[in-house]
Amino acid sequence: HSKLPINVRSWKKTLPLGSDHQTIWDELRPLLQRHSYLPKIPRLYFPDTHKLKNASLMNWNHFLVLNGISHAARRLHDSQDVILRVITAGGQGHTHLKIYRRLIAPPDILMSNNHILPILHEIIYQDITIVAVPTLMFDPCPFLFEDMLHMVLQMFEGTAYLHRNLIAYRDLFLANFMVEWMPESLIERSFGVRPRVYIIDFETAVEFPTDSTDRKCSDPPVILSEYGRPVAPELSSGLPYCPFRLDMWQIAFDLYTVYHTGLIEIDTLWADLTVDAPEDRPTADEAMQMLDTYLRKTPPSELHRPGPEFDVQVPVQVATPSAIPNIPATESLTDTTDTWVILGQIVFNRLLKEPACVTKR
């Protein structure tokens, strides 16, 4: 099929709103239909567990992504909405697929602290592997501090699980975390129920053997001139770096910039995770324990107040799209399981007012 991109990089260079994107996925339509999937705009409903009127409930008429590697679809036999994502093509993406398959296999997938997004189906065609995954979402609606901190606790837990299994993500910004639904506890509280947070897209991840002694990387996760993300100090040095400490800087960079809470212990934790010296940053386990200790000792009533607000009309300059539609503040975004999800444009609206690749001052 000459119309299909030759490798993963070529897939990611296709524009999602252009004719090439539709032509490519139309080429795969017969294959996908044989596996009971129909590429289309899904309904994208995410109701809360106890009420229908919720910011998580929506019906999009556009599938918003920053490149053509993903596509919304519907599973024909049960009308389940899914996201289709190309993982391998042209010899690229096999490390991504290997790590993903390991994490979704028993016993890992049975572990409650494993926050991997499950794969519903694998479709293999020649050298192309396409996975179908559940639709998730992230919404910039006003959080309670309590809601936000419990989500971050799950992020730390999922990261700690990866690190204990010697897997480093290397692109662990907030856009690569998704959530089942938005609790909106400031409007109506849920009792004993919290949405689960998932980690998506392991394209830049590395895995070390259990008998390895030198667990450092020499190459950046992406060519820095093409990265479009904030750049940690150790990546700018050109020297071998610890990818596990890099993960913590990347999570905390977003938290420190976007979620300035005014809570001394929390803001101090965010700051400690973003110090220039990687060895001085808390590990994922340590960060999880610190946040868990804070939540256990702090009365919930002190955290039952609005969290940081977002100016969702301002596009972030690190997302690198040439043209992205403005998203109204009342609407939500859905997971594309792609590193460059348009979600990042909204969640990181305060992150940078600088060029695409920056180093923390």
UniProtKB/TrEMBL annotation:
N-terminal signal peptide: none
Highest taxon of source: Eukaryota
Domain Protein kinase: 1-361
Protein name per its UniProtKB record: Protein kinase domain-containing protein
InterPro entries, per the entry: Kinase-like_dom_sf, Prot_kinase_dom
Any one GO MF annotation of this record: protein kinase activity
Residue ranges crossing the lipid bilayer per the database entry: none
